[in-house]
Amino acid sequence: MKYMGDYPSKRVRSVNELTDQIFEGALKAEPLKDEIYSQILKQLTENHIKYSEDKGWELLWLCTGLFPPSNVLLPHVQKFLQAKKHHPLAPDCMQRLQKALRNGSRKYPPHLVEVEAIQHKTTQIFHKVYFPDDSDE
Q: Which stretches make up the MyTH4 domain (predicted)?
């Protein structure tokens, strides 16, 4: 069985290139949302390749922040996250999913700062704010 991410690409890509390819279609076509969730959960089930599993969790974190699954798939995604609650990203994914359920789907794929944050193993995103006098305090 081949898992996503098993063969790192030789070509240099922009940070957002692949995430845009993955999520743009789903943001335009409702049925693709469940398909993406299904593929990611399949990727995370009995995957014994750590690198590949880590990439799957990163995608799930991004996905839960973009859109919720359908009402049919939602209980399965919630049950999966509950079962994996000891994984460092699972509680964050659950929070992001709750927010997506409250606010609805976002219009655009993940922002560069989100993709870079999760790739650097952090879910904290900070924006530096500059004031008119050029200070940031």
A: 1-119
Inform me whether the pLDDT recorded for 61 exceeds 50: yes
Other CB atoms within a 10 A radius of the CB of residue 35 amount to 14
Task: State what percent of residues in the chain have pLDDT above 70.
Answer: 79
On whether the CB atoms of residues 14 and 64 are closer than 8 A, the answer is: no
CA 44 – CA 125 distance, rounded (Å) = 25
pTM of the predicted structure, to 2 decimals: 0.78
Provide the 3-class DSSP secondary structure of residue 115.
helix
